[in-house]
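pasting for the record
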Amino acid sequence: MDNEQVGEEVYISMINKAEKYCWFMTPYLIITDEMTHALCLATKRGGVDVRIITPGIPDKKFIYNITRSFYHGLVKHGVRVYEWTPGFCHAKMSVADDCMATCGTINLDYRSLYHHFENGCFMADCQAVVEIKNDLIRTMGECRDVTDQYQTGRSAYLRLGQLFMRLFAGLL
């Protein structure tokens, strides 16, 4: 209620401070231009390894398609995108540089970052950070890397459809 977007500010701060890597796992990827810009700048800044894991199987097809509409804009700047293949993942975690991590209810989507009262735990310089990193490494072993698939441009028809769907992103 104080106009502070704490979830987004923590995520962007982690991205901006990362020197080696910054990884995220989120069920929904409906991000703002500011978040997109931070993720893309991190990959350009000394080669920070930025990865995002999303579900390979959707719970809501419409939102799944909007999530995928963000992939091309990210991967063309060096962000790697993975989809977890065993099922729908609902985890919300991040880790950066073996020294900071988050875990909680904050998705990388507009509703979580701006409208809902979400909870999260920020951890720094503790064993839980290493455990979250190890969990994300294990999870990536069960993912398909879709980065190359989204490297090339999309058809005009698909882009138009995705832009139309994004009109409703703030409501989802």
